[in-house]
């Protein structure tokens, strides 16, 4: 069931979203060659403490997971697409890093992700990241009252496919509110004019996940969480929490 949010609730979600944006900003500041993903997680925990917020990621255990998630952010490096558990392996110059973060504040959730290069970026990685961001912007642009879920999916998928990238099979965005994951599902590819109508008060986490090699398939790491490209190509992830309003889409996970 889709839960429509009041304007007051959207304002409260904006505060949670601001904390998420602070986490992602801190992660980019801390990330450097020699720094470990666990150190990024420690920095994220400090942001949460400073804000009086908590993490919806920590100890989260969906049906597919063999164990609860042990961190407050996901850090996915190079061929890891999403759900990477922060490790003690130092980042290297040229790594492509995707950080996915959430926050719970005042009973409301925010969720967003960003991808970036450590040190000197590979041109191919820059293009991949830029395309993920463009796909996200296209999806947000389609998130208007009167459109449908399929319009968001089509906007994202069109950008991804035109660039020759794969789309993570079976994964996409979702509703968000009191819980991190709510109805409806928001696919990253689909037919325009199909699916649930978009209404004022819907809040969605829109999140393209692109696979650089052009395939949609993935494999699981032994940890049961991390999803990797099957061909070893790199991946990028971009996400914002977006409120659908009569005045147009409102991005809640910015500073």
Question: Please, could you describe this protein's structure?
Answer:
The chain is of the alpha+beta class and 255 residues long. It has 4 helices and 14 strands. The chain has helices spanning 7-30, 37-51, 123-141, 149-162, and strands at 73-77, 80-82, 96-105, 108-117, 166-167, 173-175, 182-186, 203-206, 209-211, 218-220, 227-229, 235-237, 240-245, 248-251. It is globular, with a radius of gyration of 17 Å. InterPro entries: Creatinase/aminopeptidase-like (IPR036005), Pept_M24 (IPR000994), Pept_M24_MAP (IPR001714), Pept_M24A_MAP1 (IPR002467). This is Methionine aminopeptidase.
Structural class: alpha+beta
Percent of residues in beta strands?
25-35%
Total helices: the number is 4
Helix percentage range? 25-40%
The profile of the biggest β sheet is:
5 strands, antiparallel
Calculate the mean pLDDT score and round it: 98
Widest sheet, order of strands: 7-6-8-13-14
Q: How many distinct beta strands?
A: 14
Q: How far apart are the first and last residues' alpha carbons, in Å?
A: 30 Å
EC number: 3.4.11.18
Binding site for substrate: 83, 181
Cofactor: Co(2+); Zn(2+); Mn(2+); Fe(2+)
Organism: Streptomyces stephensoniae
């Amino acid at each position: 069931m889709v839960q429509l949010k009041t304007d007051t609730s959207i304002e409260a979600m904006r505060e949670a979203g601001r904390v998420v944006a602070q986490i992602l900003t801190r992660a980019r500041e801390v990330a450097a060659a020699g720094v470990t993903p666990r150190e990024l997680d420690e920095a994220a925990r400090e942001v949460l403490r400073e804000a009086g917020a908590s993490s919806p990621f920590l100890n989260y255990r969906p049906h597919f997971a063999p164990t609860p998630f042990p961190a407050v952010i996901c850090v996915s490096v190079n061929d890891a697409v999403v759900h990477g558990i922060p490790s003690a392996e130092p980042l290297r110059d040229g790594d492509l890093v995707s950080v996915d973060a959430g926050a719970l504040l005042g009973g409301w959730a925010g969720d967003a992700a960003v991808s970036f290069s450590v040190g000197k970026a590979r041109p191919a990685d820059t293009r991949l990241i830029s395309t993920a961001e463009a796909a996200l912007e296209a999806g947000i642009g389609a998130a208007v009252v009167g459109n449908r879920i399929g319009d968001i999916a089509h906007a994202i998928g069109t950008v991804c496919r035109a660039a020759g990238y794969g789309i993570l099979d079976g994964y996409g965005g979702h509703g968000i509110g009191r819980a991190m994951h709510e109805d409806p599902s928001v696919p990253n590819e689909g037919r325009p004019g199909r699916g649930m109508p978009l209404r004022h008060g819907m809040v969605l986490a829109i999140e393209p996940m692109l696979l650089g090699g052009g395939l949609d398939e993935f494999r699981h790491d032994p940890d049961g969480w991390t999803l990797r490209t099957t061909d070893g190509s790199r991946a990028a992830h971009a996400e914002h929490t977006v409120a659908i309003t009569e005045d147009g889409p409102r991005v809640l996970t910015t500073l």
